[in-house]
Amino acid sequence: MNDYNEYFINTITKDKWEKLGIKRRAGVVVPLFSVYSDKSIGIGDLYDLRYIVQWCKQCDLSIIQLLPLNDCGEDFSPYSSMSSFALDPMYLCLRELKEINISKYSKQLKELRKKYKAGLPIVDYEIKKAKLEFLWEIFNNSYIGDISRFERFKSENKFWLEEYALYSTISEINNCKNWVEWDEGFKSRDENQLAEIKNNYSQKIEFYKWVQWQLYEQLKGFKKFSNENGILIVGDLPFLISRNSVDVWSKREYFNLDFSVGAPPDMYFALGQRWGMPPYNWEKIESDNYIYIKERLKYAENFYDMYRIDHFIGVFRVWIIHNSVPEEKCGLEGHFYPEEEYAWETNGKKILNAFIESTSMLPIAEDLGCVPSCSYKVLEEYGIAGMEVQRWSKERSIKYDFLMPDEIRINSVSSISTHDSSNFIVWWLEEAGTIDAELFKRLCMYRNITGENYKNILDKLFDSEHITEKRLLWKSEINSIEVLCNVMQRQEHEIQDIICQYLDSYNEKDKFKKYVNLDKDEYDTEFVKKALTKSLEARSIFSIHLLNEWLSLNKEYFNYFKNRRFRINYPAIQNETNWRVTIPISVNLLPFLTINKEVREIVRMTQRD
Question: Are residues 32 and 123 in the same domain?
Fold first, then answer.
């Protein structure tokens, strides 16, 4: 541990590391919508997380990382929330409401639990509406005056709570339509019309504040329970916010509404990505002394010991697409802002300093995608951990081999998959050794390789019997750059981008088998164990894995998760399973799994807590 102490204690975030303790830790990523207990109503709730704490203690895991819990409105994508402060009411545990005699409502709770069964393969998000209706009934039948904790909560959170409750009320009046579709007075925040709403709907406004207080009490209580059991909590804080949000409606001067943020084309998304969220107006945020950022982090500090900055590379520059660009072009016709590369590092440090100075929480950076070189330099200087996803962590200059554990940067979080990627075993079965078909087609089009010429090249380079998810598998005989160039009838310098794709993916399975010391062709739970162990062996200060990857050590759940439909999210794509899949076991049974001993052995063997 001397190397870790010597490094982190000499970085800009040293005070935050000293507070937490500099230790090699292992942990789990938990999407709350994916879990449930035998007491859940339709979806996992904040009290269900206590079973995760019990399971972590058995397995010697000391970090629980939560996917965003922000109120998603009607969207249900946790990274496109309607508030960067408010928590989602669907996660509230109805059994544990503060200052309420819930026993009077036992019959309604039973009926709700019967109607909205937990543990179905796909979450029914109608549960949110049902919970809010039930809470409204309780609120109207309860005396909430003179609850000192509630009054203090309202007083301490005026910065965001007043606007959130007002926005939620107006949204409800307008059948949850986007605020840009509201009547002009509401849309433009006419003072007289807003005053009228506050007067006529004061009870409803107070209700939304009360619901947020209940959520605050439960999530804060969970953090206390976790810390008492030696578990640290990482909160995932989305870097961006939905265009249809209270933040944009009430503070639109902080956003550039003429553009949408996305990502440029890469090896996984040939058309790039277009997320729809507006970029920040950092000049205005800075002129207000970053109060918007400071208040967000101050509130999050109630619930988390660390926070993950989603799309961290956006602090340096963001890929923006003008709203006039047709949707079907995704992220193709965009550009970075700022455009000048020399400004990126200065820009990022200024924003990052505002983050660091606003909270005692330790930041973690999601530095995936098209990463500018200054990002690695800044993260090393600041002592902030970035992401090292096993399948993407490669030496990319000559051999494109997987990075060995001692080659991984200390300031990182190692993992074998993410919520935005395929599950590990699906990657192995369907993606390893392949490239994106649309990307290859586009790279060929840039060189006027089209029509029959393109089809002939496609037939010579790729195995036509092993194309899945629009991916192309290299034929074994394409075993050198020279062969690739001959087939494409191009000089090496003319197809450097295609050569990079080739080097990154050709023979990838054999390289990975060698990397994890797999001496057989079969894939099974032992294979998952080898991949997990290799990731935990990395120099990374933290190694945190999705709950479904840990569960894949069990043969039954292994077979469950090798189906691609149980992927948590397909970025920039809307489908019926995104953010809705559940795990195949109730969390109250996790402490009794036979694999717990195996997880604990892996953690101890790799010298993690």
Answer: yes
What is the H or E stretch that residue 491 is in? none
The CATH number of residue 311's host domain is 3.20.20.80
564/575 Cα distance (integer angstroms): 13
**Structure token pair of residue 129:** 């509406």
Q: What is the dihedral of CA 457, 267, 331, 485, to 10 degrees?
A: -30
Residues 74 and 548: their CA atoms lie apart, in Å, by: 26
> What beta strand segments (E) does 250-348 contain?
259-263, 273-274, 306-309, 318-322, 334-337
User: In this structure, are residues 259 and 294 in contact, taking their beta carbons and an 8 Å threshold?
Assistant: no
Whether the CA torsion 402, 545, 423, 311 is positive or negative: it is: negative
447, 545: one domain? no
Tell me how many helices (H) and strands (E) the chain has: 25, 14
Between 141-150, 233-242, 318-327, 444-453, the lowest mean confidence (pLDDT) is in 141-150
Report the candidate in 590, 588, 583 with the shortest Cα–Cα distance to residue 120: 583
In a domain, 513, yes or no: no
**Average pLDDT, stretch 448-468?**
89
Per-residue pLDDT tens over the stretch 360-412: 999 999 999 889 999 999 999 999 999 999 999 998 776 789 999 999 999 99
Q: How does DSSP classify residue 559? A: H
The number of residues making up the chain comes to 609
The SS3 assignment for 331 reads coil
Mean pLDDT of all residues in 111-135: 96
Compute CA 328 distance to the chain's CA centroid, rounded to the nearest angstrom: 25
The whole model's pTM is what? 0.96
Confidence band of 467 (pLDDT split at 50, 70, 90): low
Instruction: List the 386-389 sheet strands across, edge first.
Output: 362-365, 306-309, 232-237, 63-66, 25-30, 542-546, 412-415, 386-389
Give me the chain's average pLDDT, please. Answer: 95
Q: Look up residue 568 and give its two tokens.
A: 């948590």
For residue 588, the number of C-alpha atoms closer than 13 Å in the C-beta half-sphere is 11
CA pair distance 578, 200, nearest whole angstrom: 38
* 441 plus 581 within the same structural domain: no
Would you call the peptide bond into 278 cis, given omega within 30 degrees of 0 as the criterion? no
Measured from the Cβ of residue 3, the count of other Cβ atoms closer than 10 Å reads 9
The mean pLDDT of 206-212, rounded to a whole number, is: 98
The amino acid sitting at 410 is: I
Q: Are residues 466 and 592 in the same domain?
A: no
Token pair recorded at residue 163? 């606007």
